[in-house]
Amino acid sequence: MLRFLSVGFALALQLACAASSPSSDRCETVADCAAGRRCVDGRCVVVRDAGAESDAGTDDDAGVDDGGLDDADTPIDAPVDAPTPGPCGFERCAIWRLPAGATTWEAYPLGGGAFVPTSAIVAAFDLETEGRAYVLTHTTAHVLQLSDRRWLSGTTTAALFPEAEADVVLGAYSVPTTIANGDGIHEGVTLQSSSAAYSYQLNIETGAVRHVSTVTNFSDAWDAALAPAPEDVRFIWLDVDGTRDWVSASPMAACGIGPDELEGYAVVGTRARSHVLEAGWCFEFVAAPVHAGFEPFTYEGAPNPSEIGATFWNQGELWAFAEAIE
């Protein structure tokens, strides 16, 4: 193929030269012929000695194998640089999952369909035993099926949480039915802004949501040295069992009550740090490592914490979502 390409290219050049030559090729002397031609037997002809360069000083491409190089000495069959697929193929990664007990994250594109979020993701919470999660933008709420990451339905945040409609939600978390209500039906859900926490009960069988309370005065814990500024909150997750040993802290040492080892805790993330809130005894912030020093974000394939818009904890798994969807 390369040789045929070279021949074709040389032929095209020869045709171009022929088109610009004199209309008559009769001659008596070389002076009657155009440049690059000789007068031979009364006719102007191009003379090429076998194996020699032509008068134009270039090799005859039709008879010389140039090793597949073009005039720039680069292979003419060199492949054009093609995009390299990443962890999510040729799509942008927008969802990350850290399986229970794992030290390697899995990454997925956002997906598609009629109910996929189409604006920045700002909060998320799971339904612990249902294998579903709610992913929120500033104005919409989308239900994600965790098993195959299929978007099942969508509605407005105003329809589900009208009390928080006029506020800017920065994070969310849910409390399993066994703790929130004890009836196995109602999950506790909290949406948080920079100035308020909106608490709800969500019926996991019907999807009905009931407003419980709105708190506008945060506890003194939010004024402590290890607490984040409420306006800096970007994501929250709650692990009521403390199943991973990511935090070395003692409720007894920090609060004067409880065990010596941390059990349940919440992580409140900002762009820079993961602020850890003890969630069983005194509800104080007990640690605030920078993301680079917090173990889940050091694992292989971890998302960039400064780009995360929402997280939730489900059945020992940590899920994260990119804030920007494009």
Q: What topology emerges from the helices and strands here?
A:
Layout: H1 2-19, E1 38-40, E2 43-45, E3 93-98, E4 106-109, E5 123-127, E6 132-136, E7 140-145, E8 150-156, H2 157-160, E9 171-175, H3 177-180, E10 186-192, E11 197-203, E12 209-215, E13 235-239, H4 251-255, E14 265-269, E15 274-278, E16 285-287, E17 308-314, E18 317-322
Antiparallel strand pairs: 1-2, 3-4, 3-18, 5-6, 6-7, 7-8, 9-10, 10-11, 11-12, 13-14, 14-15, 15-16, 17-18
Describe the structure.
There is one protein chain. With 326 residues, the chain is mostly beta strands. It has four helices and 18 strands. The strands form five sheets. It has a four-stranded antiparallel sheet with strand order 4-3-18-17, with no helix packed on it. Strand 1 (38-40) and strand 2 (43-45) form a beta hairpin. The model is unreliable at 1-23 and 48-71 (pLDDT under 50).
